[in-house]
Amino acid sequence: MADNSSSNAYWSANLRIIKISLVIWALVSFGFGILLRPLLSGISVGGTDLGFWFAQQGSILVFLALIFFYAWRMNKLDAEHGVEE
Amino acid sequence: MDQFTLNWIFIGASFALYIGIAIWARAGSTSEFYAAGRGIHPVTNGMATAADWMSAASFISMAGLIAFTGYDNSSFLMGWTGGYVLLALLLAPYLRKFGKYTVSEFIGDRFYSPTARMVAVICLIVASTTYVIGQMTGVGVAFGRFLEVDKTTGLFIGAAVVFAYAVFGGMKGVTYTQVAQYCVLIIAYTIPAIFISLQLTGNPIPGLGLFGDHVASGEPLLAKLDMLVEELGFNSYTGHHADTLNMVLFTLSLMIGTAGLPHVIMRFFTVPKVADARWSAGWTLVFIALLYLTAPAVGAMARLNLITTVYPDGTASAPIDYEARPDWMATWETTGLLKFEDKNGDGKIQWYNDKSDSFAETAAERGWEGSELNVNRDILVLANPEIAQLPGWVIALVAAGGLAAALSTAAGLLLAISSAVSHDLIKGAINPGISEKGELLSARIAMAVAICVATYLGLNPPGFAAQTVALAFGLAAASIFPALMMGIFTKVNNKGAVAGMLTGLIVTLVYIFMHKGWLFIPGTNQFTDADPLLGTIKSTSFGAIGALLNFAVAFAVSKSSDPIPAEIEELVESVRVPKGAGAAQDH
Fold it and tell me: pTM above the 0.90 mark?
């Protein structure tokens, strides 16, 4: 097992990545999809506005990108800190 | 060949396929049955998890709910996919590292308390039973239609089939059966959507067609749809009409509920490595997204087709005669899920928003005396290929897909409930000395009781399939998710976790019962979701608040009692790093 200081650095790096990812997660769904939709109403997409697109398509695509980014980034982080299996 | 026969050929063939694969896979190795998924590639595991997870709510019900309200029901789309982000980032890798098989085992060990484990089991049973009620609603609709009987008879037949399916049981655990179910389900969902998208927009990808131009009118599809629905006095399709606070809370409830449902989380316990748990969540969402990116297009296009069916000469002209209605309307009438009542006695089908004050004048001018068509939201996806006049085999394919979705999830949940009762509750707490035979018997009894309860409540369901399922997500959100998250990310102690889970579960359950009827018995509710107890917060959205209360109570109780013992502290530290997961599994 990695020594304590290294695993603490690993854990705080992980928490940082999680925080950034969750900010994006909330931004595209609760933000662009619901609360910030009025701000995006000027940008039209196929007969409606960008907020509608985010609510019904865009958020799902971003969720996918986030999960794959996290998996890739964390697998790299595991190797950097020598805690991979 | 008539449609009825064709439906049964497709349904029969798909069932033969699942059973065939189950027999083939079981003959291959018995250990596969128990190790469900270990050593299986993340892509395959993702596909199987997607089949396990997408139920009647996703397949049969969701697009219909979107079709009839438009943008306001986007919560289902964001909620049921966004939860996978939480699952992938906050739970899956750590639970895999922990290396046990069930959610309640994790909670019991992490909070070093058999009480915590029992409370988790109870939360699991309550959420899963509610989930099964929603599935039964969907099963009733599907069987009612394909046997051409009324929905109550359909529900009883469906319940018998689900029970047999769940008792046969083992096939649920075989990953390759679920892969086959996923394939049937996704083909059945996307093929009609592709046909309809081509008809209406010329674009074969429904998600793109939704934002494309309507071929017949040359206008953007959604602009055309907005215009048509507004001409009939309905709210615009793309507009935001729902209460914003409620919409945010509802979306959040579905998200954290997804990450708190035991039958989904369990899939990530058994992948070979922590890294695979991370990838698996991504692949699962890929396969779920194929349906979820298509669903909003299915909804919008079905609404458009339904309007043009009823008003072939445009919404300003007279609707069609009842006698000239298409065959699909007549077949759905036998189920009781589509109703026509000629209120003004002119023999035509007026379908409009009779609750709109601004439209009342126009309606009066035209001699309309109320909307005459009542379409149950849950029939839309199943009726969709018929509305679009697609070939008979497409209609039959959708029948097979809808049943695959409803049966696989319902059977899976019944198995989860029965093992929770027999293994965790009876063997784990009430009677540890129970024989293997006794355990098996109690599992069967639990399953039979669960299905009777679900069928009884399914006769008068608390909502459309997806709405009932949303209640189950609210319960999981309020009880299980916070406990798991605090178990990994904080040092909350046993007392905190138990108090938090109980608070979340009880408060949410009471709020739901106050709005949907106590124990979901119709007529026993004090409030309605149209006028909820707390401001604009509907019972389906309360899970998010229940979860917040769970966190708050857990932290408060934990602060005022003893800190966690050193060995639990070590356990938390070890769960946080992937290294050594193989060893953890061998315990």
Answer: yes
